[in-house]
């Protein structure tokens, strides 16, 4: 029995998000479609460590010759982020956004899972066009980040 995976399952079921269980691991996989694209999400239970982790993984790897530019994009995007962070694997080009929480001493509630999932997919959707423009369009990372962050809505405004 894994209360972390159970909480993820309940949240996905409540929001009618179909998922599959990765055989032999504490990971649930699902596809997510945002305004700017589609990508795979991974919900992971690290039960022994008492941690819940949620990833949004870009659906295509970054070509080898653009990985350093995307690494710069990732660093620029991460600067100032409070909840979550982007990661790039320089060996295979995988890019993902991660949110996580230590749940030691607390229950993995619906609200806790929502606080992992919602900001994650919103952030991935927001940054995905810039990420792709750097990875496949040759855009300079600073330019891509400036365009994304120029459209940032101040807190309290809709």
Give descriptors for this structure.
158 residues; alpha+beta; Yope Regulator, Chain: A; six-stranded antiparallel beta sheet; 4 helices
Secondary structure layout plus pairing:
Elements (H helix, E strand, L loop, with lengths): L2 H12 L5 E2 L5 E7 L4 E9 L4 E7 L9 H12 L6 E4 L6 E8 L7 H28 L3 H10 L8
Helix pairs in contact: 2-3, 2-4, 3-4
- Our count of helices gives 4
Strand order of the largest sheet: 1-2-3-4-6-5
> What is the name of the CATH class?
Alpha Beta
CATH topology: Yope Regulator, Chain: A
Beta-strand content estimate: 15-25%
Largest sheet: 6 strands, antiparallel
Structural Rg:
16 Å
Summarize the amount of helix as a percent range: 25-40%
Uncertain residue segments: none
| Average pLDDT taken over every residue | 92
What does this structure look like?
The structure is a single chain. This protein is of the alpha+beta class and 158 residues long. It has a single domain, classed as 2-Layer Sandwich (Yope Regulator, Chain: A), CATH 3.30.1460. Helix content is 39%, strand content 23%. It has a 6-stranded antiparallel beta sheet. Strand 1 (20-21) and strand 2 form a beta hairpin. Helix 2 (67-78) packs parallel to helix 4 and helix 3 (110-137) packs across helix 4 (141-150). The longest helix has 28 residues, at 110-137. The relative contact order is 0.17. The model has no long low-confidence stretch (mean pLDDT 92).
Would you kindly provide a brief summary of this structure?
This protein has one domain (3-150): 2-Layer Sandwich (Yope Regulator, Chain: A).
């Amino acid at each position: 029995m894994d209360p972390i995976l159970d909480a993820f399952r309940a949240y996905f079921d409540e929001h009618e998000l179909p998922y599959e269980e990765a055989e032999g691991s504490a990971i649930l996989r699902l596809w997510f479609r945002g305004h700017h694209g589609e990508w795979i999400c991974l919900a992971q239970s690290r039960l022994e460590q008492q941690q819940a982790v949620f990833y949004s993984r870009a659906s295509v790897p970054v070509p080898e010759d653009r990985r350093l530019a995307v690494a710069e994009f990732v660093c620029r995007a991460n600067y100032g982020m409070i909840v979550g962070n982007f990661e790039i694997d320089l060996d295979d080009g995988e890019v993902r956004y991660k949110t996580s929480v230590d749940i030691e001493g607390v229950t993995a509630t619906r609200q806790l899972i929502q606080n992992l999932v919602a900001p994650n997919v919103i952030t991935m959707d927001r940054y995905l066009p810039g990420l792709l423009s750097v990875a496949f369009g040759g855009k300079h990372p600073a330019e891509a980040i400036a365009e994304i962050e120029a459209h940032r809505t101040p807190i309290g405004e809709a």
